[in-house]
Structures are given as C-alpha cells and as structure tokens.
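RECORD TYPE: inverse folding
INPUT: structure tokens
STRUCTURE:
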C-alpha cells in the first residue's frame, strides 16, 4: 500500500475462506477478495503474487501462482530443501516468469555498501566472518535453522564469496569457483517437539575463507555480524539482517594494534513508510487505530518490494541482488548444516 501508486498497488488478497479474505480486505482496504489461493492467482488484475502463507504451503502456492502466469515473491523459507526449491525455480524459468525468494536482507542499501567496502579493499583481504541471531522466542514451535539461521547463512555467503565473480563461472553460484563446505555443525533439539532450537556451524568458503554462525530460538544474543580482513573489520550491529548502520575499523602495524575508527555510516529507512491505520476496527479498537510494526526495521520491506517491482517492469526473471544460484547455495548450506548436526547429535547419543 505504501509504494508509490505509479510503482505498484495492492489490488487483491486471497485466503482459504471467504470470511478470512473479507476480514483482511476490510481491515486494510484491499478492494478484491478471493476465497481461495487459486482464485487469487487467476485474477487478471494481479501481476505479482506475494506468497506469505504458512511455510509448509509455500511450494504448493508458488506452483499455483506460476502455473497461472504470475510473477512470485515468496516469503522465506521458500522450500524445505534445495531439491524442491530447484523444481520451483525451474518452473518459473520455463514460464519466463519472475521469481524472488524474500530474504529481505539482500535488498537493504547497507548490505550493498558492505560489498562495496569488501570490493574496494577497505579492510584488506577478507579472511573470515561471523553472525549471531539468537532470540528467546519460539523454541519448539519451528526450526531455529530455518527461522533465523537462514539470515546468518545468507550473510556469510554475501560477504565471503567473490563480489566480482559471475554466477555462470562458479560451481556453487556464490563465487570463487567452488561451493562452500560445511566443516562443523552442532544442534540442540527441543525436548518436546524435537525441532532444533539452537544451532552452531562452521563453513569453509572459496579461497580458504571461514564463516561461523549461531542461531537460536531459546536464548538471546547481540544479533550482530562482522567481516574480518587483513586490514580491519566491518561490523553490523543489531539488527544485522536488516541493517541501517555499518562500522568500519582499520587496523595495521605490529599485532594490528594501530586502529583508525570506527567510521560509522548510517542508512535511513525509506521515507514515508509507517504502520497503516486499520480501516475496520476489531476487538475494541478505535477508528483509525494504528497497531504498529511487529518487527524491527519493518519499513525496510519496501526495499524488497521496490526491487521486485523493478525486476517485473524490466522483464527480469530474477533479482541480481539474490540470484537463483545464490538462493540455492544458501539453501544447500542450510541443508548440509541440518544433516551434519543431526548426524553429530546421533553419534553423540
């Protein structure tokens, strides 16, 4: 709704029931309501479908939209494994349709700035990176690896692969000619559901670069990330996955004890984007009530939406900020961590 009207407009909503579609449409003033996802995807007024259904439905709903000739932006995680993800992206390719996996981190200006700094050699030759995304919320209800670990994995891929390497020249699609290799993984499972609630991993990237991360739904961390080079450090403080600040500290001399900085660069969130007032109050709300955002820096979703609109208007079938190969590589990393951590847990039982 808050993209400029000459860029895009929310014209329809689909639900599994007529009442659900009407309730959501009334609340947010969406004109067209559909009582099934199939009906929504068949709406001739719809160009792009945003799939934000429960994650287990994502593959099915993406297929439905693509078969109806619609471009797709799919909320993470788009598929439970790389095999199914490949099938969906191959379907999009065969239909010559845009498909974007909604890992919104990739579309923040600060993320692009990090790559510019790496490419320019600001901190020398990059050797390693780390990320931490732990929150005490949701343990046992879903997988920490899929919920928050995917943000860590995509960050490590973004900063530890060669920014100048073309995907077509690389085996794994991330850069440097070789796919990343998971060298270590550990998990702690929720005793009730059996789902992973804490995961740690060590990954080797092309050129001997090493990335580490931890993710959890059972405890908190500072939720920051950093890139380490021969001449300094790039830090992304909380929230690193939707960043608005970068800190660069240059280090040189004996034992790298001569410090310059940190130099701090900030990136304001999109202007004119804020929580919308509800059109139809519920549960004692007043007319025009503004419920606010659920998550930090939610305004940044506008970056993702704008990129999808740009790609659609320019006839692209994927975003250069998160290509199909990059997407698959991240999902392969997640799958490999899951397998190794399960094997390690079984071996230590």
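DESIGNED SEQUENCE:
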């Amino acid at each position: 709704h808050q993209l400029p009207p000459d860029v895009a407009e929310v014209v329809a909503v689909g639900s599994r029931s007529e009442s659900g579609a009407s309730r959501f449409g009334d609340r947010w003033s969406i004109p067209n309501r559909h009582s099934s996802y199939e009906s929504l995807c068949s709406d001739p007024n719809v160009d792009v479908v945003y799939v934000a259904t429960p994650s287990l439905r994502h593959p099915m709903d993406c297929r439905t939209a693509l078969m109806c000739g619609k471009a797709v932006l799919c909320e993470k995680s788009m598929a439970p494994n790389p095999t199914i993800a490949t099938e969906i992206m191959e379907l999009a390719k065969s239909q010559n349709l845009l498909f974007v996996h909604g890992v919104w981190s990739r579309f923040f200006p600060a993320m692009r700035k990090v790559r510019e700094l790496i490419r320019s050699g600001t901190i020398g030759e990059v050797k390693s990176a780390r990320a931490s995304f732990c929150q005490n919320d949701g343990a046992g209800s879903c997988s920490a690896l899929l919920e928050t670990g995917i943000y860590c994995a995509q960050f490590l891929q973004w900063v530890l692969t060669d920014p100048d390497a073309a995907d077509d020249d690389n085996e794994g699609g991330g850069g440097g000619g070789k796919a990343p290799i998971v060298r270590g993984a550990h998990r702690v499972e929720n005793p009730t559901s059996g789902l992973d609630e804490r995961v740690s991993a060590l990954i080797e990237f092309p050129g001997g670069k090493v990335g580490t991360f931890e993710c959890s739904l059972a405890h908190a961390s500072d939720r920051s990330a950093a890139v380490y080079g021969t001449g300094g450090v790039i830090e992304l403080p909380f929230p690193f996955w939707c960043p608005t600040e970068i800190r660069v500290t240059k280090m040189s001399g004996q034992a790298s004890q001569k410090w310059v900085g940190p130099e701090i660069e900030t990136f304001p969130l999109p202007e004119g984007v804020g929580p919308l007032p509800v059109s139809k109050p519920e549960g004692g709300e007043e007319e025009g009530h503004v419920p606010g955002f659920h998550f930090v820096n939610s305004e940044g979703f506008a970056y993702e939406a704008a990129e999808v609109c740009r790609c659609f208007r320019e006839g692209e079938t994927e975003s250069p900020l998160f290509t199909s190969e990059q997407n698959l590589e991240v999902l392969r990393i997640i799958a490999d961590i899951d397998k190794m951590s399960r094997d390690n847990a079984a071996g230590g039982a």
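NOTES: The longest helix spans residues 324-347.
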